[in-house]
Write a structure and sequence with these properties.
single chain, alpha/beta, Rossmann fold, seven-stranded parallel β-sheet, 7 strands
Amino acid sequence: MDSSHVTAAIQSVRDHYEERGIFMKQFGFGRKPALVVIDMAYGWTDPAYATGSTRLDEAVAGIKQLLPRCRRKQVPIVYTTSPFRQEDEEPMHSRDSSQADGSSYLPWDERACEIDERLKPEPGDFVIYKENASAFFGTHLAAHLVDNRVDTVIVTGCSTSACVRATATDARAYRFRAIVPRQCVQDRAPAAHEWNLFDLDAKFADVVDVDEVAEYLEQLS
């Protein structure tokens, strides 16, 4: 589906919602935010891996706008990635290529689960190794946020249609205000990216410009 068809489909649904006065509510920012960086590990940011179809440069650039502001304001920062197990180390999607083992991609290895150097965690940041799409499911994230008196979760990372969406919807389920900065999330499929941003904004989160989030962070006491 090309961009014009996606835009038309989104507009059609938006008109449907507005006509009936449903969804499309804004939740707004709260008083105490946390920044959650979803799965920005090499397995997703390095195209040498089958799961890393792009470098996610746009999302990296957007997140880098927020990280120093969060650190200055002592906003809790949470990273997620997948746990690595030795039995997971195997080639993915093997086919003819120049790789030594004959696969077209690097084998899934320990590096695949390491956070990209461009967004490297610092001491004091909370790193979660999750088994599922949502950063909340089966983890200590909710307890960590409650312990830090957080009421607003700024969700960034990849991918928009999977782990970002699952985390944002679960944030809402836990009664946190979910904020998704548009420039800080990315997906392998542009159509899936745009549709999920629209649907999240309609029902579960506020999808906003990264500059709006940066301004909100700067105004924190």
